[in-house]
Write a structure and sequence with these properties.
Elements: E1 5-6, H1 18-31, H2 41-60, E2 70-73, H3 76-87, E3 92-97, H4 102-113, E4 117-122, H5 132-138, E5 143-149, H6 161-171, E6 174-178, H7 190-193, E7 197-201, E8 213-217, H8 255-271, H9 273-292, E9 297-300, E10 311-316, H10 321-332, E11 334-335, E12 337-339, H11 344-350, E13 358-362, H12 369-385
Parallel strand pairs: 1-11, 3-4, 3-5, 5-6, 6-7
Antiparallel strand pairs: 2-8, 7-8, 9-10, 10-13, 12-13
C-alpha cells in the first residue's frame, strides 16, 4: 500500500488524516456505548459527541437553524432516498439534471415507473454546466422540487447553486442539493444559496469514515418520515416520532461514524477549505495539461479550472476505459475509477455511454506533485504502446 498512487478520491478519500484515525480509536475505546438510551456517564458522553457533530455540521452548512434538524444516515444515497420519498406525492413533478448520480436517478425512476411522479432531466452544456434558465423553463405548475448535484462525480464541474436557488424560491418549489462531491472542498451556505435540503456523505471530502452521512432540512420543509423504529424516546408511543432528529432517524446511530465525521470535519476546518481546494486544483491543472497534450487521449469538460473540482475524466483511443484502468493498476500502481461511475446520464451527455464510460482520476488532500508526474507519464506510455 505504501507504493500505491491513489487517484480515486471521488469514490472515497484515502488515506484519512492521522487525526481521524486516532480520534476514532480513542473515542470508541472510552465511549463505544449506545447514545441517547441511558443515563450513565459513558452514554451521556457518547450522546455529547452526537450533538456536537450536529452543531458542527449545522454551522458548516450555514443552515442558521436548529441543529436537531441535522440528521444522520448511512450515506448520501440513504438520505436522498428518505428526502425524495418523504417530499413527493402522487401527481408531483420533479426537475433534476443529467449530471446526477444514481442516488438521485434511481429513487426518482422508481417513483416515475410506479406512476407517482413525472421527472424532467435538464441537460448540461458542452463545458459540463447546467444553465439556471433551463431549470426555470423546466419548472411546471405541479413541480414539487428541484434536485441538483452540486458537483459532478464524473467531470467535476460545480453548478451555479445560488442562481438555481433563486429561481426555486421565485417559483415556490423546494430545492434539494446533493453535496456528496462538494462538501469539504467549497463553502456551502444554505441560507445564501436558497437551499431547502442539503444532503451529504462523510467519507469523501469531509474526510470521515464510510457508513455515515446525513441531511439538513430547513424549517417548514414538509418531509415525511418513511422509516419507523426505536429512538430511545417515548417508547410507549406506537407511532414514530415526528420531531427532528427522530423524524429521519431510527435505531442506534453509527456512533463510531459520527465520531469519525466530527474529526474529519474538524480537520478540514483547521486546514481551511480554500487551502485544501487550491492545492488540489493546482495538481489538477498540472494533470489535465499533461494528460490533455498526449496524442490519442481525449479529456472531457476540462478546459479550465473555474467552478471545478479536482476530477479529470479521459479516454485513450482504441482502448476501453476498463483496460486502461487495469494497466494503470497492474503496471503502474495507480488506483483510479473506470466505467460509468454510477452516473449513466452524464455519459449519455458526453457520448461515452456507448464506449463503456471513461477513466477517472480524482485528487485528494494527500496527493503530491510526484503522484501527478507519474500518472501523466503512465498515460503517455499506455497511449504510445496502444497507438
Amino acid at each position: 500500500m505504501s507504493a500505491l498512487i491513489y487517484l480515486d478520491n471521488s469514490a472515497t478519500s484515502f488515506p484519512k488524516p492521522e487525526f481521524v484515525y486516532q480520534f476514532m480509536d480513542g473515542f470508541y475505546r472510552k465511549h463505544g456505548v449506545n447514545p441517547g438510551r441511558s443515563g450513565f456517564d459513558a452514554a451521556l458522553e457518547a450522546e455529547e459527541i452526537v450533538m456536537k457533530t450536529r452543531r458542527l455540521l449545522t454551522d458548516f452548512f450555514h443552515a442558521g437553524g436548529d441543529p436537531n434538524r441535522l440528521t444522520f444516515s448511512y450515506n448520501a444515497s440513504d438520505s436522498l432516498n428518505m428526502i425524495i420519498q418523504g417530499l413527493v406525492e402522487k401527481g408531483d413533478h420533479v426537475v433534476t439534471t443529467m449530471l446526477e448520480h444514481n442516488s438521485v436517478l434511481r429513487p426518482l425512476y422508481h417513483l416515475e415507473m410506479n406512476g407517482l411522479v413525472e421527472v424532467t432531466h435538464v441537460m448540461f452544456d458542452e463545458h459540463g454546466y447546467v444553465h439556471p434558465d433551463d431549470i426555470k423553463i423546466a419548472i411546471r405548475k405541479n413541480t414539487k422540487m428541484v434536485v441538483v448535484n452540486h458537483c459532478s462525480n464524473v467531470i467535476g464541474t460545480l453548478q451555479p447553486i445560488a442562481e438555481i436557488g433563486n429561481i426555486c424560491k421565485e417559483a415556490g418549489v423546494l430545492f434539494v442539493v446533493d453535496t456528496t462531491q462538494s462538501a469539504g472542498t467549497v463553502p456551502i451556505d444554505m441560507v445564501a444559496m436558497g437551499i431547502d435540503v442539503v444532503v451529504f456523505t462523510g467519507h469523501k471530502c469531509l474526510m470521515g469514515p464510510t457508513g455515515i452521512g446525513g441531511s439538513y432540512v430547513m424549517d417548514n420543509v414538509p418531509v415525511k418520515y418513511t422509516r419507523f423504529g426505536g429512538t430511545g424516546v417515548r417508547s410507549a408511543q406506537l407511532t414514530h416520532l415526528e420531531e427532528f432528529p427522530y423524524r429521519l432517524e431510527c435505531g442506534t446511530l453509527n456512533l463510531l461514524g459520527v465520531a469519525g465525521l466530527h474529526a474529519g470535519v474538524s480537520w478540514v476546518l483547521e486546514n481551511g477549505i480554500e487551502n485544501l481546494h487550491a492545492k488540489e486544483m493546482r495538481l489538477w491543472d498540472k494533470l489535465r495539461k499533461g494528460v490533455g497534450t498526449v496524442e490519442n487521449v481525449v479529456t472531457y469538460c476540462a478546459e479550465n479550472s473555474e467552478r471545478h473540482n479536482a476530477v479529470l475524466c479521459f479516454n485513450i483511443k482504441n482502448l476501453t476505459a476498463g483496460d486502461v484502468g487495469t494497466l494503470l493498476d497492474v503496471d503502474y500502481g495507480i488506483a483510479c475509477r473506470t466505467g460509468l461511475h454510477c452516473a449513466p446520464k452524464v455519459h449519455v451527455g458526453l457520448g461515452t455511454d456507448k464506449i463503456h464510460g471513461t477513466v477517472r482520476f480524482s485528487i485528494g488532500p494527500f496527493n503530491t506533485e510526484e503522484h501527478i508526474d507519474k500518472a501523466i507519464e503512465a498515460v503517455k506510455e499506455i497511449a504510445q504502446i496502444r497507438k
